[in-house]
């Protein structure tokens, strides 16, 4: 038997012999093998040993010819020898027909990938195609993955591939048009046609992660390997990923590699002339877009930026649908039932549309936590809180977010501030005045900062998926993310207050600045109050009372000093939280109590003007009745801030003077994009017939009883209002309009 390493006629012979018992055996090194027990893997190990090659770089084929033309025809997948199978499986006739048995009838071709270690006397050749290369590179990866899932049954074949996620929200037609234009310009370059180098575009895709010098002889080698004639054209799409790493390589070097690539290499193989028949389209992806622009010399190629925005929720849903189809997920009325699982919708929304975060989350759902493909079948049994936390942990391990925060607490707070307050940044901005190296550009390149283009040229918004905020909160303890809404709202109010006080160094603000986007009369919104740094305290008692103490340490809370935002004791007739503030520049009022009342959902009922007035009066009465208990706070002006998941059924212009309102219509303005998305999800769920419970449906939709409410639940999903009304002829649009009910149909209306 012979095996051949496919290049300059290098052969090695392996003996196959009969013994005295009419058994075939072979000898490799000092070890003998019975051919009936001899595996392809044994031969592969031997070839790796003698050629000093990595096992994953070696592939074996069964052939029965030895000429080069015949060999090339035989190198097909069906002839490739699988390591786990017996060698004899591939040579039944040659081995067991004694009359025909001959060593020269048995041939194995061994091809060693160019990626493997080279041997001094062995020239290696590249694999035939990109598919072959990927298959070789991923061979070890897939074997390790299969070993990881030991709990999976041997008969189960996974339908999930984390690298198979469909591309969404990417302008592929634009990219194709740019490449087409480059190719046409290249083909037309001759003595009669001339194009400026700026007519050619190098594609650059820069953004958040998640999103030796190249020798020109490489392309000559490719042409030679493909047996191309001199006049035959070769088109290569060269993708250089993580191109920011080239800048690290370039540090301290005079011959800058990246500068060479875009200013010398590209003109040679993109612009070219009539004597060049190799065209190379370059595509750089990484996290250093600004640095790439700086390296480009004038009058050279155009750098065309390819936008990679965060995924829209519609696209996220389409991606999950892609896997729902693969797993044959259950449908209801033609739609996949998973879309009626609000908790799953909630956590995929928390990915913020960052593709890599979504990838990790889906890997957990479809592979690691559900090893038999049962995720959709058992969706009601899933622990979505655990899935969310495990996804956050995976992000931490990959991005090192904790290290970034601990390395510079100041920068961490600044990133969060700019994100929540929606402040614009430029690439050269330094968030820490004492640290000039950590510019926005460097933070984008080195860490996990995500930038979103604004309408102002050269300026960006900082974006963070909610799961990133969870990790920030682990270290900074910003808000109690998993606490009751009342406590969350109090911590968020203190957070905004402290950002304005410490970051913007403001000593006074209007209520309009403090409660961004709140509805209220101008005379209330324009009131100016003094700012102090706030701490959040939970009271053991129900305020108002003579003394209140901290639930944390039982120490007195000196709320009159205005340094504490107090979360009131449970069941208090007063507000859910309050803070004492000084009103400035107002001769009639000096002391103020800002009282926050969290009016959450009450079975889907709208909040009336009368309820608002009653809420304000209730707070005032509590103070009057207990006037002696707050004698150290003279004649306070009480302003009630109602934060609600309910919708008002009256004009906001009719609000009393001492009331501000934050509701569904202005949640995003007040809470910012990060927190409002979570709040809005719960708000929408309450007025969404796709999710609402029967009790809530009866209160949301006018004049219906339990029977109709049950039918509404049965006929889900609903795509829009017309679909809803068509399925329920007895419900009239006019009734909904008169009741000021605007139904939501997420996620089917995206």
Briefly, what is this?
The protein has 750 residues and is α/β, with parallel strands linked by helices. It contains 26 helices and 23 strands.
Task: Describe the structure in your own words.
- The chain is of the alpha/beta class and 750 residues long.
- The chain has 6 domains: 2-143, no CATH class; 172-305, no CATH class; 313-399, no CATH class; 401-475; 480-662, no CATH class; 687-738.
- The protein contains 26 helices and 23 strands.
- The strands form 6 sheets. Strands 16, 17, 18, 19, 20, 21, 22 and 23 form an 8-stranded mixed beta sheet that branches.
- α12 crosses α13 (384-399), α14 (401-407) crosses α17 and α23 (694-700) crosses α24.
- It is elongated and about 110 Å long.
- Mean pLDDT is 75; it is low at 4-11, 114-134, 140-152 and 211-216.
For this entry, give a set of tags:
750 residues; alpha/beta; 6 domains; 8-stranded mixed sheet; 4-stranded mixed sheet; 26 helices; 23 strands; elongated; Crinkler effector protein N-terminal domain-containing protein
Low-confidence stretches: 4-11, 114-134, 140-152, 211-216
Kindly, what is the distance between the CA atoms of the first and last residues, rounded to a whole number of angstroms? 65 Å
What gyration radius follows from the Cα positions, in whole Å?
A: 35 Å
Overall tally of domains: 6
The fraction of residues assigned to DSSP E strands is 15-25%
Overall pLDDT metric: 75
User: How would you characterize the largest beta sheet?
Assistant: 8 strands, mixed
Helical content band: 25-40%
Total helix count?
A: 26
- Structural class by SSE content: alpha/beta
Number of separate strands:
23
- Indicate the overall shape: elongated
Protein name: Crinkler effector protein N-terminal domain-containing protein
Organism: Rhizophagus clarus
